C-alpha cells in the first residue's frame, strides 16, 4: 500500500516534538511493509486561506 503522510510546513522549533512523533509513526509503517512518502504542505498552517489551499492540495496528492 502506498501512503502519503502530509506534514505541516516547518515554521520554527514549535513543531519539534509533534514532528518527532510523526517520524516514529512513519518508521513503524515502513517496518510493517507500507510504502510511505512525506509531503510537506506548501503554506504555513496559519489563517483560513492557506489551510484551505493545503487541504485541496492534499486531496490531489493522495495515494492508496
Describe this structure as you would to a colleague.
The chain has helices at 16-31, 48-61; strands spanning 2-7, 35-40. It is α+β, with helices and mostly antiparallel strands and 64 residues long. The chain has one domain (2-61). Strands 1-2 form a two-stranded parallel ribbon. It starts with a strand and ends with a helix.
Give the helix/strand class. alpha+beta
> Residue-averaged pLDDT, rounded?
86
Order of helices and strands: EHEH
| Strand residue content | 15-25%
Within the largest sheet, what's the order of strands? 1-2
What is the first-to-last residue Cα distance?
6 Å
Name the overall outline: flat
Rg, nearest Å:
13 Å
Features:
64 residues, alpha+beta, two-stranded parallel ribbon, flat
Briefly characterize the structure:
This protein is an alpha+beta fold and 64 residues long. The protein has helices at residues 16-31, 48-61; strands at residues 2-7, 35-40. Strands 1-2 form a two-stranded parallel ribbon.
List the helices and strands and how they pair.
Elements lengths: L1 E6 L8 H16 L3 E6 L7 H14 L3
Parallel strand pairs: 1-2
Amino acid at each position: 500500500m502506498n501512503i502519503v503522510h502530509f506534514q505541516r510546513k516547518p515554521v520554527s522549533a514549535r513543531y519539534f516534538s509533534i514532528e518527532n512523533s510523526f517520524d516514529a509513526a512513519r518508521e513503524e509503517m515502513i517496518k510493517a511493509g507500507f510504502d510511505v512518502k512525506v509531503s510537506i504542505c506548501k503554506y504555513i498552517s496559519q489563517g483560513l486561506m492557506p489551510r484551505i489551499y493545503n487541504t485541496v492540495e492534499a486531496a490531489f496528492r493522495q495515494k492508496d
